[in-house]
Amino acid sequence: MAQGLNELGWVEGKNIAIEYRGTEGDITRLPDLAAELVRLKVDVIVAPTTGAALAAKNATPSTPIVMVYIGDPVGAGLVASLARPGGNITGVSWGGIELSSKQLELLKETVPRLSKLAVLKNAASQFHRQVVKDVETSARTLGLHLQIREVREPAEFDSAFSTMKRLRADAVFIPGDPMFNIQRTRLANLAAANRLPAMYGQRDNVEAGGLMSYAPSLREAHRQAATFVDKILKGAKPTDLPVEQPTKVERVINGRAHAAVGERRRRGSLAWRTVLDRAGCAT
User: Fold this and answer.
1) Do the beta carbons of residue 216 and residue 63 sit within 8 Å?
2) What would the pLDDT profile of 31-72 be if each residue is shown by its tens digit?
3) What is the pTM for the complete model shown?
4) CA 237, CA 91: separation in Å to the nearest integer?
5) What's the CA angle centered on 272, arms 271 and 276, to 5 degrees?
6) Is 39 exposed, middle or buried (0-12, 13-18, 19+ CB in 10 A)?
7) Can you name the CATH fold of 2-96+217-240?
């Protein structure tokens, strides 16, 4: 975000002040943090997750809010529609980009014997409910049998992976999620320990040791969000700024993990990535 703002002429400490707030892994702090920012009378609140955006929305009906990486802002009640957001929220959403079919296709390409696919679902996530519906549709097309494993907290991870292994899952799909992102190293280790090739919904999971991801570029989403902040600081109203979709979707593969599952298309010992456009062009 800071880099994107710099490119637009906003330099922290010179012509813009940025108040950073983080949950440090405790998302129950979001309402208090949002309320604190409102009390500081900031000009714009940037919300990188659905939970953060909802907390900000509940804290203020007037301060502009810019979403960065939201899966389904309409379903979450953040905006009325992508074209006409209404209210005080706008930004970047990857809702509507067809991801699940490509994610499963890439995983099946990596694991040709894939028949039984486990899905790790955050039971508290409204977004994951929609993800699972999309995955179910894609799985039927590919002839895959799904095993949905719901968790509510990290303490349930071990049991979920043990069940996947016991039921002979061939691979696991782990959608993007704030809790999963915080626990990304542990999830990568559990997938490796249980010999389960994993497709993730965020690049961070691959950088933490996971096998592969196919998702919108978070870096580019932050750069796009910076343009919304720029426009709002120059007088634009969120209600007049349609929600945009990310301009880049990327496939990221961890070379070491790739080799470990016996993939023939090994590309070396270091992680590599291919940036794809929104149409999901072939690499």
Assistant:
1) no
2) 999 999 999 999 999 999 888 999 999 999 999 999 998 888
3) 0.78
4) 12
5) 140
6) exposed
7) Rossmann fold (3.40.50)
